């Protein structure tokens, strides 16, 4: 059994066949999916999925590229209320994204405030980091994020960055890109992450693994990430499934 720790099944890309997609995931041995609600539109749709399906859990938070839309006090209070819901297992995805042009100061404020909220509530955080490794690590450290820890989602950094994150109580999660032939660094990092700190995910509908690269991704494909990870680490897919599932349950307090 596998756990997809990062999915966006509420995306309109699944509007035509969401039920089918979820059924395929179950048939592929995915026993838990964590869906991520990251802005005003996707937080409610994520909560609907989590309330409808016993095996879908939710993370809710404000994405850095939507930072300008956040009404800070009001939306922090909204996220706080949702964190009391039994299916909400983390705050996220939050972080920094320097690929797009959302003003950095606003991103920093929104990121900082959500780390503070997570510490106050004792919830782990799911980190989105695009082209912002240094500042992500700096803000996590500044805000004492190691108190709650969490998940570095779809990790793409160096081993040096991974080590800093591991030391701050963050697990390292890999998605489809680690299956690409030219993904030398991610494969090297995946090989070195300790057994008890490794997670897998899809980030569907984005970032489909080989051989579906460029097409729509879905939770069933987390099995392809698991297969690649097992090969890189020289262990059986069963062992890889067991350890990543145990890690996800522990990190997200899923029974
Ligand atoms: Ni995501």
Biggest sheet: strand arrangement: 1-2-3-4-5-6-7-8
Attached small molecules: nickel (II) ion
Radius of gyration: 17 Å
What would the average pLDDT be, to the nearest integer? 98
Shape: globular
CATH names the topology as TIM Barrel
Could you list the spans in which at least 5 consecutive residues all have pLDDT below 50?
none
E-strand count: 8
Order of helices and strands: EHEHEHEHEHEHEHEHH
Report helical residue fraction. 40-55%
Distance between the termini: 14 Å
Strand content: 15-25%
Structural account:
- By secondary structure, the chain is an alpha/beta fold.
- It has one domain (2-252): TIM Barrel, CATH 3.20.20.
- 42% of the residues lie in helices and 18% in strands.
- It contains 9 helices and 8 strands.
- It has helices spanning 18-27, 42-52, 72-82, 104-121, 133-142, 159-167, 184-192, 222-233, 237-252; strands at 2-7, 30-37, 56-60, 88-97, 125-130, 150-152, 170-174, 198-200.
- An 8-stranded parallel sheet has the order 1-2-3-4-5-6-7-8.
- Helix 8 packs across helix 9.
- It is globular.
- The two termini are 14 Å apart.
- The model has no long low-confidence stretch (mean pLDDT 98).
- The structure holds nickel (II) ion (NI).
- Nickel (II) ion (NI) is lined by residues 6, 8, 36, 93, 203.
């Amino acid at each position: 059994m596998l756990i997809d720790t990062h999915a966006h099944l509420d995306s309109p890309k699944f509007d035509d066949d969401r039920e089918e997609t979820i059924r395929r995931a179950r048939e592929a041995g995915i026993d838990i999916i964590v869906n991520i609600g990251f802005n005003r539109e996707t937080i409610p749709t994520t909560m609907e999925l989590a309330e409808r399906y016993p095996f879908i859990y939710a993370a809710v938070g404000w994405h850095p590229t939507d930072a300008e839309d956040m009404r800070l006090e009001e939306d922090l209070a909204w996220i706080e209320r949702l964190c009391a819901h039994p299916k909400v297992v983390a705050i996220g995805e939050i972080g920094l994204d320097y690929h797009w042009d959302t003003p950095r100061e606003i991103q920093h404020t929104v990121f900082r405030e959500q780390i503070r909220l997570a510490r106050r509530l004792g919830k782990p955080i799911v980190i989105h980091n695009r082209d912002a490794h240094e500042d992500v690590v700096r803000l996590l450290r500044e805000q004492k994020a190691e108190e709650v820890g969490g998940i570095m989602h779809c990790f793409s950094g160096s081993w040096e960055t991974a080590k800093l994150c591991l030391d701050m109580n963050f697990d390292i999660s890999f998605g489809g890109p680690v299956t690409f032939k030219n993904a030398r660094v991610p494969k090297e990092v995946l090989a070195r992450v300790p057994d008890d700190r490794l997670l897998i995910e899809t980030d569907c509908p984005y970032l489909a693994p080989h051989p579906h690269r460029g097409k729509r991704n879905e939770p069933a494909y987390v099995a392809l990430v698991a297969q690649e990870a097992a090969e890189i680490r020289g262990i059986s897919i069963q062992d890889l499934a067991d350890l990543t599932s145990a890690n996800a349950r522990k990190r997200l307090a899923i029974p």
